[in-house]
Amino acid sequence: MSSSDGLTDMLAGSLAGAAVVMVGQPLDTVKTKLQTFRGLYANSAQCLAHTYRTSGLRGLYAGSSPAVLASVAENSVLFACYGLCQQMVAAATGAHDAKQMDALSNAVAGCAASFFSSVVLCPAELVKIKLQAGRELAESQGRRFRGSVYKVTKDIVRNYGVNGMFRGLTMTVAREMPSYFCFFGVYEAVRESLKPVGRSRDDCGLLATTAAGAAGGMLLWTVTFPVDVVKSRIQLDDAMPTRGWTVCMMRVYRAEGMSALYSGLAPTLVRCVPSSAVLFIVYEYTKKLFDP
């Protein structure tokens, strides 16, 4: 893969990441609140309405700045590394090039690429979650929440050092790698099945790309959502232990039942349809624009 290919992948991933936040941030805020404060809201609709009544659109887009940073950083690194990993997997499997790889090979490439994107994603997602659900946490502790990206970041570094910005990194990796194995595998499999007769996957139109992205996104979240629930709780509340996340997951299961590990899944699945579709539409068409 040439350096220009890598830069194109990074640019396409960056634009796609920014578009995803603009489309899906309100429902992502609802998801975070439902994950971290089970029982506080009756359902997604009530959480959405209450947040809008108390904080307006600003509340629904709480944490947007770090969310954009997280999404741009994640997707620029993810897609740049995905292109590189595709070339490596193609060489290992004897495929002529990435376009000739099957869905399983693309799934392996996506899984490997997500390890690198997890490292840049974790700090920004940590700040985002604290801004999204910080008000509820503060009220549960009898104090007032006054947060901004600068203040939250400053407090983390002051209390826990730079390493504190990577709270939840192990769980981020544990979520991302199986997620993107499913994501890219399903995305490429659906595109393969919907491609025009006698043409390649790159010739799929808008509708096929939308369907493939939506299908990949829904499977991604369904498979790893319990890990994301526990990760959100650990990143929000500094009092929770960061080691032994499987133990934390079992504690949530024993105390609150299996449904707690899927709290917030409904708005996530609703969000991931347009978000995943936008992600791949922007990515694919940006690549077509810059590719010779």
Commentary on this structure:
The protein contains nine helices and no strands. The longest helix has 38 residues, at 103-140. The radius of gyration is 19 Å and the shape is globular. It has 292 residues and is an all-alpha fold. The model has no long low-confidence stretch (mean pLDDT 86). It has one domain: Mitochondrial carrier fold (Alpha/alpha barrel).
Q: What key attributes describe this structure?
A:
292 residues; mainly alpha; Mitochondrial carrier fold; 9 helices; MCP_dom_sf
List the helices and strands and how they pair.
Blueprint: H1 3-36, H2 44-60, H3 64-93, H4 103-140, H5 149-160, H6 169-194, H7 206-236, H8 245-256, H9 265-290
Q: Outline of this structure?
A:
This protein is mainly alpha-helical.
Class by SSE composition? mainly alpha
The CATH C-level class name = Mainly Alpha
**For the terminal residues, how far apart are their CA atoms?**
14 Å
Q: What percentage of the residues does DSSP assign to strands (E)?
A: under 5%
In N-to-C order, the SSE pattern is HHHHHHHHH
Task: Profile the largest sheet.
Answer: none
CA radius of gyration is 19 Å
CATH homologous superfamily title? Mitochondrial carrier domain
What would the CATH topology be?
Mitochondrial carrier fold
Family: Belongs to the mitochondrial carrier (TC 2.A.29) family.
Membrane topology: Multi-pass membrane protein
Protein name: Mitochondrial ornithine transporter 1
Keywords: Membrane, Mitochondrion, Repeat, Transmembrane, Transmembrane helix, Transport
